[in-house]
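Input.
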Amino acid sequence: MTKIPLVDCEVHHRPKDFSDRIALAFTKTLRFCADTFFAKRYGHRAIVLETVAAVPGMVGATITHLKCLRRMCDDQNWIRTLMEEAENERMHLMTFIKVAQPNLFERLVILGVQWVFYIAFFSLYLLSPKTAHRVVGYFEEEAVISYTMYLKELDEGRSPNVPAPEIAKHYWKLPEDATLRDVVLVVRADEAHHRDVNHGFANELAGYANPAVAVAPYPEHADDIRMVA
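Output.
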């Protein structure tokens, strides 16, 4: 039996206001840059982008924590959710480092991009938390697309379906014979989870009706899987 995460790859939040359009345009610009730089080197793309993806959750948790201390109010479980997101994205990075070792140039890119993005996202979150969460929601939409394309590469034999790294088998509780394809499936499920949560946070901050958000636990996704032979 293999665990197959159920993921709706067609989910897209249509922009409803100016800040949503800015968030989407920013995301599409970064997507173009990533596509140009990495092409179909999905393992290397994952390494660089996951170092960035782990930033928003930590930034959001930090600022929310400080705000709740100042106002002496409850966080409505936002801090824990955002911290779990940051930790989960870091585990994506640790996994893909085992799959595709980054070269010196990519490590330098990571250093520069992470600092620039951290400062930019921290500033954005201070100015407009709603826009910041919408940006992350759109980021995760693109991540789901990228991992779906990665699955296609694996299924069609253009990328080797190597054995899953031990760190991935331990974290996601995968079977001993798990492969890279299994890893990409559970990582894609994580990204879909982050997508829904961050769009939900943005909607809540904007005063929209907050859609039902899957809150599958990390790392097992017990409520987000089906069993198939």
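The first strand starts at residue 2 and ends at 5.
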